[in-house]
Every structure is written in structure tokens, then in C-alpha cells.
């Protein structure tokens, strides 16, 4: 929010563009409080996005908590569709929808943030003839979102936050070429329709990707690797979508959770074997004690693996931040 607040304070009310904002929010958070905060620092007319609202220049629309914000022609669509990259609202969802609706008249902006949301979305915008802008990583409090975009997409402008408002004013005041709907890639049109819940069957997903031996970390369904674009991406037919990096992060979390459950079950088995050994006699009791001791070694190795993995992940995130 501090970066977003600084940016909107630089934009005049006369800017000839609508400003659509996705901020990663907790589902129970108050969107109205954030809108009021933005309005206090901005000349724009700020409002929480509502379904079927017609967008207007000089207005800022903030996606509500736990809802995707989409565009169909000049109207907002607010949906509780499947998460993308683990987020709802997601920047990728908005960027794709805007690119399909407005083609070359879209400017996508990625500010400071964690992980990878917005990377694929900027590529969607570029493929439809639009412009991609990111905050310079050295200027970002959390540079991983800008860095991800720069690694994967041909970015048009990389600027510090202090210069971004002026750049956006300049870009929006330049005469843009007319939108060419025929140039909008068919696969992005299909994905935009899936996000609107118009389609989403296996047949539609098969048209834009090929099935792979990986399951969706959100619903457990089959994933398709999408055929177009430079950003490696995956989608299931229910609508969940991931970049490869986001899917890797999600799989890591699922794996860790599974292994902790395994440790709990092994600990319970060890306790049971120990109880059996204490009540047994002779070779049978010794056998149960040996089984319990062997299980203890497995538990310790698995626990060490998990703790080392958590330490490495924390160190990596700290270095990124």
C-alpha cells in the first residue's frame, strides 16, 4: 500500500485512462478502508470495484477482497472465480482480461511485491500489443515481483516509483494506435472466457495446451501445460492457473505438509511399538523394541530434512527481500 499510495498521488484527475488496481488482500480485509486511504492521497476518484460498473477516465477501481476483477468491453466483472497463482484477486487475471478487451490500449504496471503474480499478465498485455512497466527492483521494498517480470517478459519501461507517475501520464496522453481485435490471440480469448466462467471444459483447455503428468495443487485435477507464450504456465479445466514458479512454490507447501503428517503418523507408530515392547517378553518384545528404534531413526532423518528445507527457504526469502 505505501508504494501504491505514492504512485496514485502522482496521477492527475485529468489522466485520460481508468486505473484498475489489484492488491493482494486477506479475504476478511476491508476494501473500503484501503479505498479511503488511496482517496486521501489522490486526485483520482477512488472506489471499490462493483460488478457491471462502466469504467471512466480519472477513476481508480480497487479489486474487492477475495474477488477477481475482470473487464468485458467497458464494464467491470467482479467474480469469485478460481485462484490464479494462489491469489484472488490476481493481477494475471486482470491483465489478461484487460488485454483481450482493449488490446494495444492497455498499460500493465507491476510494483513491489512477493512471488510471481503479474509476470504472465504482462506477457498477455505484450502479446496483445500493450505496454509493460515495472518498478525498478532496486527501488522496490520487495523486489521479487518486478524481478520475475524482468526475467520472463520483454519489459518496455523499468523505472523507480518516483518517476512512474510522470511516465504513465506521458504514455496515456500519447495518441495510441486503434485497437485491433483481430490481433488478440485466440488462446488468450479462451482463457479470458474461462475466467468469466463462460467456458472451462476439458475440450476448451485441450485447445490451448497439452496434458502433463502433474496435478493441480488447488483442486487435485489434471493440469495442462499451455502452448503459447514465453512464460511456462499450467492450467486445470476448473480454472486454476499457475506459472511454473508459482506451481513449484505451491507444490513445495503441499509436500512439506504431507511430510509433517507422515512424521506424526510415524511418531504414533513408534509409541505403539514401544508400548507393545514393554508388555512383551522374550524375542517378541525385543523385536518390537528394535522396530521402534528403527522407526525413531527414520523420524529423525525426516525431521532434519524438513527443518533444513525450512531454513533454506527462509534464507532464500530473506535474500530476496
List the helices and strands and how they pair.
Elements: H1 2-9, E1 19-21, H2 31-40, E2 45-48, E3 59-62, E4 68-72, E5 75-79, H3 91-102, E6 107-110, H4 119-127, E7 131-135, H5 144-152, E8 157-159, H6 161-173, H7 186-195, H8 202-208, E9 209-215, E10 222-226, E11 233-236, E12 241-243, H9 244-279, H10 282-320
Parallel strand pairs: 1-3, 2-3, 6-7, 7-8
Antiparallel strand pairs: 4-5, 9-10, 10-11, 11-12
Helix pairs in contact: 1-6, 3-4, 3-7, 4-5, 9-10
Query: Looking across the biggest beta sheet, what order are the strands in?
Result: 9-10-11-12
- Find the CATH superfamily of the largest domain: Methylesterase CheB, C-terminal domain
What sequence of helices (H) and strands (E) makes up the elements?
HEHEEEEHEHEHEHHHEEEEHH
Distance between the termini: 16 Å
Q: Uncertain regions: pLDDT < 50 for 5+ in a row?
A: 314-321
Mean pLDDT: 88
> CATH architecture of the largest domain, please?
3-Layer(aba) Sandwich
Q: Give the helix level as a range of percent.
A: 40-55%
Tell the overall outline.
Answer: elongated
Structural class: alpha/beta
Q: Mind explaining what this structure looks like?
A:
By secondary structure, the chain is α/β, with parallel strands linked by helices. The protein has three domains: 2-182, Methylesterase CheB, C-terminal domain (Rossmann fold, 3-Layer(aba) Sandwich), CATH 3.40.50.180; 197-245, no CATH class; 249-320. It is 48% helix and 16% strand. The protein contains ten helices and twelve strands. The protein has helices at 2-9, 31-40, 91-102, 119-127, 144-152, 161-173, 186-195, 202-208, 244-279, 282-320; strands at residues 19-21, 45-48, 59-62, 68-72, 75-79, 107-110, 131-135, 157-159, 209-215, 222-226, 233-236, 241-243. It has a four-stranded antiparallel beta sheet. It has a three-stranded parallel beta sheet with strand order 1-3-2, with helices on one face. A hairpin with a 6-residue loop joins strand 10 (222-226) and strand 11. Helix 3 (91-102) packs across helix 7 (186-195) and helix 9 (244-279) runs antiparallel to helix 10. The longest helix has 39 residues, at 282-320. The radius of gyration is 24 Å and the shape is elongated. The two termini are 16 Å apart.
Amino acid at each position: 500500500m505505501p508504494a501504491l499510495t505514492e504512485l496514485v498521488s502522482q496521477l492527475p484527475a485529468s489522466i485520460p485512462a481508468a486505473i484498475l488496481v489489484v492488491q493482494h488482500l486477506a479475504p476478511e480485509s476491508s476494501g473500503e478502508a484501503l479505498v479511503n486511504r488511496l482517496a486521501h492521497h489522490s486526485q483520482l476518484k477512488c472506489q471499490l470495484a462493483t460488478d457491471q460498473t462502466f469504467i471512466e477516465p480519472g477513476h481508480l477501481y480497487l479489486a474487492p477482497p477475495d474477488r477477481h476483477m475482470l473487464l468485458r468491453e467497458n464494464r467491470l466483472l467482479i467474480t469469485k472465480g478460481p485462484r490464479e497463482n494462489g491469489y484472488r484477486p490476481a493481477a494475471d487475471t486482470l491483465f489478461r482480461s484487460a488485454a483481450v478487451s482493449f488490446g494495444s490500449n492497455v498499460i500493465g504496471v507491476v510494483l513491489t511485491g512477493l512471488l510471481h503474480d503479474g509476470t504472465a499478465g504482462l506477457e498477455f498485455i505484450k502479446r496483445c500489443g500493450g505496454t509493460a512497466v515495472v518498478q525498478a527492483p532496486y527501488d522496490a521494498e520487495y523486489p521479487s515481483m518486478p524481478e520475475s517480470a524482468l526475467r520472463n517478459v520483454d519489459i518496455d519501461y523499468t523505472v523507480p516509483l518516483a518517476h512512474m507517475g510522470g511516465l504513465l501520464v506521458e504514455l496515456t496522453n500519447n495518441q495510441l494506435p486503434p485497437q485491433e481485435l483481430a490481433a488478440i490471440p485466440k488462446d488468450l480469448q479462451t482463457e479470458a472466457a474461462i475466467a468469466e466462467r463462460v467456458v472451462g471444459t476439458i475440450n476448451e483447455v485441450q485447445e490451448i495446451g497439452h496434458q502433463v503428468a502433474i496435478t493441480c495443487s488447488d483442486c487435485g485435477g489434471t493440469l495442462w501445460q499451455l502452448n503459447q507464450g514465453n512464460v511456462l504456465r499450467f492450467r486445470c479445466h476448473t480454472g486454476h492457473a499457475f506459472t511454473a514458479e508459482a506451481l513449484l512454490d505451491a507444490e513445495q507447501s503441499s509436500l512439506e505438509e504431507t511430510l509433517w503428517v507422515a512424521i506424526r503418523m510415524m511418531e504414533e507408530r513408534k509409541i505403539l511399538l514401544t508400548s507393545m515392547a514393554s508388555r512383551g517378553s522374550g524375542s517378541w518384545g525385543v523385536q518390537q523394541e528394535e522396530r521402534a528404534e528403527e522407526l525413531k531413526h527414520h523420524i529423525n532423518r525426516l525431521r532434519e530434512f524438513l527443518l533444513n528445507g525450512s531454513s533454506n527457504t527462509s534464507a532464500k526469502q530473506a535474500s530476496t527481500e
